[in-house]
Amino acid sequence: MSGAALITEARKRAGLTQTELARRLRTHQSAIARWETGRTAPDYDRVVAALRAAGFELGVSLSPIDDHDVSLIRRELKLLPHQRLSDMVKAVRKLSAIESVARG
Fold first, then answer.
1. Is the pLDDT of residue 52 over 90?
2. pTM of the prediction?
């Protein structure tokens, strides 16, 4: 997610206009508009300041890559459409059976 997208999301979640956010940052509404439209890219410190002005903190963490979904998608794409449909029907039947047992 870009700095511009983070600022836009934070501003909207906080219910602020561009003018209100600009006032909190002691800048101009046009600067906020340029960030949000991507005409200029705010640096990291400006992004953090804008998020804080909107009442949010930026949390950054490193997570191991989980490509499990990609593996599943690749496996499914190797199947023909009727095979995927057949597998889906089987899965729905199994879920229905489990649901029936759970209801008693």
1. yes
2. 0.60
